[in-house]
Write a structure and sequence with these properties.
Layout lengths: L4 E7 L3 H10 L3 E6 L4 E6 L2 E6 L7 E5 L15 H10 L4 E3 L9 E6 L5 E6 L2
Parallel strand pairs: 1-4, 5-8
Antiparallel strand pairs: 1-5, 2-3, 3-4, 6-7, 7-8
């Protein structure tokens, strides 16, 4: 199964302090808007999303159809196919996408330890 680019989305207390911290680690801003309280930071193939006040816990995020630079992949597994695979394998979903749709969609599940996983397709 091709899940696309991986990032961790962090719930941060002070986005400016977090931005400065991750820049010190070699990350730079790839996308986002500081005034809207979110930034996507990149260092090589590593992505970290910084989010202030948008969700309660940290989230593991996958983006079907994108690589680590947000470039559209030629070949990828559509989120609806991923959802069918998960359901066939008895993985409970917290949030599902419409199976008959096309294009952008998302779904949410949790791993056995309660970690939230977002699969978020933008294309």
């Amino acid at each position: 199964m091709k899940l696309g680019a991986f990032s961790i989305s962090l719930n941060v207390k002070d986005i400016k302090a977090s931005k400065k911290f991750y820049e010190t680690l070699g990350f730079s801003v790839l996308a986002g808007d500081l005034e809207k309280n979110y930034l996507i930071m990149k260092n090589g193939n590593s992505l970290i999303g910084l989010f202030h006040g948008m969700f309660e816990n940290n989230i593991l995020t996958f983006n079907p159809g994108w690589d680590e630079s947000g470039t559209t992949l030629e070949s990828f597994d559509d989120i609806r196919d991923i959802q069918k695979h998960l359901k066939t394998n008895n993985i409970s979903l917290v949030q599902e996408t419409e199976e008959s749709g096309t294009g952008p969609a998302s779904l949410v599940l949790t791993d056995p330890d309660g970690n939230t996983i977002l699969i978020d397709q933008h294309i």
